[in-house]
Amino acid sequence: MNKSNCVKCFMTCLIILLIGTSGCVPYKKIKYFNDIDELSEPTANPMKSKTIFPFEKLQITVLSTDEQTADLLNSYGQGNANRLKGYVVDETGYINYPFVGRIQVSGLTLLEAGNKISDAMSGLITKPEVIVSSMDNMVTVMGEVGNQGRYLINEDFINIYQALALGGGLSQYADRKKVILLRNENNRLIHYKLDLTNSKIASSPLYYIIPNDIIIVEPLRNKSYSYQNSTITTLLTAMTAIISILFITNVASR
Questions:
Q1: Which 8-state DSSP code applies to residue 144?
Q2: Which of 98, 119, 161, 195 is positioned for an S-S bond with 76, CB 3.0–4.6 A?
């Protein structure tokens, strides 16, 4: 084999190697539902009422025909002009409400907490109606998403897909089978693993995200390969350019 044929052979091998190290992600790994064709009926997942947890901040609004007393009570929950102060549930599940004292609210729904606070102040104000709502509901989205960050949510519940959408959605290298959910339960940080490619996630209690949840999207192995391949591809491109010059020079000198 002469020099020209050697160069041609080597260039062909380089091209094949470049194609093989391109780091493509298989189609099934970037789909959300790989079992969508197997679904025969809708998946049921009734949304449960949100319950209050320790360290949550609550807004408490009192309504009553006794407007003066109601306004006085509501003023205690106000901060400055730009931010509500609210009431923070302590580590034991209690809030300290003015003129009433400590009230246990952890584990109750917002409606149940409102009724309990209303009963506690019944001797203080005429026919009180208490509305309890959550404040500063935040969810953190990290990893292989468009925009990592901590996001404010206006609802008591959002689902996992809505939470990921807040972070700009998943990147091309996101591993949809390895989405980690960190949640504080009973003063313990619990790690859950979610598989977004399985439609049964919609029937899981983890489908709904609650305030202070942290979502971490793990990368595919292809991403680590792509980092390696970028260096290899750069070197191979340089080598190909050099060989091309040598090949052209060799042809021109004949």
A1: S
A2: 98
Burial 96-109 (b: 16+ CB within 10 A, else e): ebeeeeebebbebb
Place of tokens 């390895």: 178
| Fold adopted by 27-49+137-219 | Outer membrane lipoprotein wza fold like (3.10.560)
pTM of the model: 0.63
Secondary structure in 3-state letters for 45-81: CCCCCCECCCCCEEEEEEECCCHHHHHHHHHCCCCEC
Contacts of 224 (CB under 8 A, 6+ apart): none
- Contact between residue 127 and residue 65 where contact means Cβ atoms under 8 Å apart: yes
Task: Return the structure tokens found at 174.
Answer: 């996101």
State the pLDDT at residue 246: 57
Closest CA to 171 of 197, 205, 147: 147
| Residues, the chain | 254
Say how far apart CA 45 and CA 205 lie, in whole Å. 8
Residues 147-171: pLDDT tens digits?
999 998 877 778 999 999 999 999 9
Taking the C-alpha atoms of residue 110 and residue 57, their distance in angstroms, rounded to an integer, is 12
